Amino acid sequence: MNQIKIFSPATVANVSCGFDVLGFCLDTIGDEMIIKKTSQKGITISKIEGYDLPFEAENNVAGVSALALYNDANPDFGFDIEIYKKVKPGSGIGSSSASAVGSVFAMNELLGKPYNKTQLINFAMKGEALASKCEHADNLAPAIFGGFTLVKSLSPLHVLQLPTPKDLFAVVIHPQIEIKTSESRAILPQDVSLKNAITQWSNVGSFVHALHTEDYKLLSDSLKDVIVEPYRSQLIPHFEDVKQTALKQGALGCGISGSGPSIFSLCKGEDTANKVREAIHNVYSQTTIDFELHLSKINTEGIKIL
Ligand code: HSE
């Protein structure tokens, strides 16, 4: 095999209670990439469609993760990357992760799969760090494993795959403004109160239990963020309106997707998800901000070969 085309999915990180550790994979939103073997050694990026991003491998998220894998594998040929970018950078639905993971997943396939998924995330984290100025894997892990994941530790990297209750659907609104992950990390406090820490770890624990037991009521009770959301929600226009509207229409929970500005709602059943989508559409239609609205089942497969 000399070339491969892949779909690299968008993802929702944090999932309210699990800042930097929880994430889930979306189904209908993602980038496409074509990776080819080349006779000349090294990594090139010959095509980028969709957004204006750097072509130099060392300045491009997909290129940096590709270089990390390439330098480790040291093959006697090179790779060329074509990126068909559909997930807007700075959207909060794992745009940089989709790029970072896509290149290394595809290269691994072309090399005959010498690396496992955890090793691929380690390479991809180098690309992710270029965009967000720090290494984290809560978007990368669900992109590559699919479903819900929990990053137990970064060093050594340990990812847990969590079960996906079958009736879960996500609604994601993406207001067309850009929030840089590095900036929305910079506004967060370095210390949290013991009271808030207790609430948060109780919610992460019960959220994981709810996934295992398909307990939608517990899942709903756990989708709360007392640590990060109070700060970041101020960067997102109409966040509180969207959240209250989604909850009123029956969403199990609603919170900031990754570092924003996207806002996700998790719903039990497609009918409720449709109602939530329509109600959120009405809220944002009355504003002057352009937006995209997605309804997606949870993608339990992750990244796909096309
Ligand atoms: N956990 C990360 C954050 C995800 O919220 O900053 C965004 O890349």
Output the keywords:
2 domains; 4-stranded antiparallel beta sheet; 10 helices; 7-stranded mixed beta sheet; binds L-homoserine; alpha+beta; 306 residues; Alpha-Beta Plaits; Ribosomal Protein S5, domain 2
Précis, in short:
By secondary structure, the chain is α+β, with helices and mostly antiparallel strands. The chain has ten helices and eleven strands. The structure holds L-homoserine (HSE).
What ions, cofactors and ligands are bound? Answer: L-homoserine
Tell me the major beta sheet: 7 strands, mixed
The overall average pLDDT, rounded, is 96
Named at the architecture level, the CATH assignment of the largest domain is 2-Layer Sandwich
Query: Helicity level, as a percent range?
Result: 25-40%
How large, in whole angstroms, is the Cα Rg? 19 Å
N-C termini distance:
14 Å
User: Which geometry do the CA atoms define?
Assistant: globular
Compressed to H and E, one letter per element, the order equals EEEHEHHHEEEHHHHHEEHEE
CATH fold name of the largest domain: Ribosomal Protein S5, domain 2
Strand percentage lies at 25-35%
Total domain units: 2
Q: Structural class, judged by helices and strands?
A: alpha+beta
Number of helices: 10
Number of strands: 11
The low-pLDDT segments are none
Instruction: Write down the CATH class of the largest domain.
Output: Alpha Beta
